[in-house]
# Entry
Amino acid sequence: MRPLQLRLLPDTSEVVEGRLHVGGCDLVDLASEFGTPLFVYDEDHLRARCREAVAAFGDDVAYATKAFLCKAMAKLAHEEGMKLDVATGGELHVALAAGVPADRLVMHGNNKSALELELAVEHGVGRIVVDSFDELARLDQLHAHTGVVPKILLRLTPGVEAHTHEFIATGQDDSKFGFTVSTGAAAAAITRASESRSVELVGVHAHIGSQVFAVSSFTKAVAVIAAVAEPYGLPELSIGGGLGVAYIADEIAPSISDWGRSVRDACLDAGVTADVSAEPGRSIVASAAVTLYSVGTVKEVSGIRTFVAVDGGMSDNPRPVLYGSGYETFLPRDVSAERPDIVRVVGKHCESGDVLVRDAAVPADLKVGDILATPVTGAYGHSMGSNYNKVLRPAVVFVSGGDARLVVRRETYDDLLRLDL
Ligand SMILES: Cc1ncc(COP(=O)(O)O)c(C=O)c1O
# Structure
C-alpha cells in the first residue's frame, strides 16, 4: 500500500528526517510532552481557512462552532473576522466566555428553549435563525416581556438532496429542521414573520447537510430559496455550511473559495439582491488537526485479522461508529513509510463496535508503544466526544512557529466526579 498522501495533513506539515512536524513541532515530542490521545491543531491552517472564508463570503460569514469549540477556537475565528454560529445555550456560553461580542453571534437550533432565546435576546446576539412556528410564538412571548425586537432569519428547507450520510442530510423535505418550501410552510413563515412586531425579519437561511462534495447541491438550494424569498426583498441570505473535506486517499473536495464562487454565481443567476453569506464548520477545522494515540496492544487473529488497540476510541472520534466514516493512519516517526499491512484500529471501550479505522494501512514495523496518528480529525471529534467508560477527554494543543500551546487540558479523574453530589 502507498504511503500516506501528505495533502491530507495540516498546511504547515513538514517531514524532517522522516518525522512529521506540524507548526514547527515534532509530533512524537508533543505526544511525550502532553500525553495521548492528543488533538494537535495547526493554528496557521485554522487562520488561513477563516481568512479564505471571509474572502469568499464577506465578514458576515460565520464559523459553525459545533465542528470544534473551545475558548481558543472561538477567539481565533473572531480575530480572523468571522461571526460565530452557536446552536445551543452551551455554545453561546463558551463563545461569550471567549470574549466574542454578542452581536457577532448567530443563534441556531431546531428546538431552542425559552431560556436559550431569553439568553440570546438578553445578550443581544446579532441574529437568531428561527426554525419553527413554535419558536416564532416563543419570540412573541419574549417580546411581550422584554420589548426587544431581535433580528431574525428563517431557516428554510429547500427539498434538496445533499448526497451525504442520511444522519447529516438536512435539506430534504423529510427533515426535522426548518420551514419546508414545498408544503408552503416557508412562504407562510415569511409572511408571518414580516408582519410580526416581535421580530425584525432580515433574511432567509438554508443548510442542506454536511460533508457535501457536490457544489451543485448548494446551487440548487440557492435557486429554491431565492424563488421563495426574493419577492420579499429581504437583505440577507445564508447558504449554511456543509462543504465536504477529503478524509481519505483519492477523495477530492472543492475549496472554500470554489464553493464561494459557485454560490455567488448561483445567486447572480437567481437574481438574488441580498447579501450572501455562509456558515462553514468542517471545512475550517477538519484538516487542521491530527489525533495522536499510543498503541497499547497488537492482537493477531490468525487467518482473520490484526487488531491494533489505541488509548482512545469512540469517545474522542465517534464518526466511524455513527456514520461509518473512513480515516487514514500513519506513524509520525516515519510519515512517508510504505503501508503494506491492513489492520483494524480499535479503541479501548467496552464495545466491539469501538472501531476508529476499519481497514487501516500501516507500516510493517508498527509495534506496541508507537505513536499512531489519524489525520483530518479537527471537526466533530473533540466536539462530539464523550467520556464513555469514564475515559478521560483528551487535551488539545494549538501549534504554530515551533510553539505548542495547551488550549484544553486533559480531563482528570477528579473532573469525572465534579457533577456527582
Ligand atoms: C445550521 C448549520 N450551519 C452550519 C453547519 C456546519 O456544517 P459543516 O460543519 O458541515 O460546514 C451545520 C452542521 O450541522 C448546521 O447545522
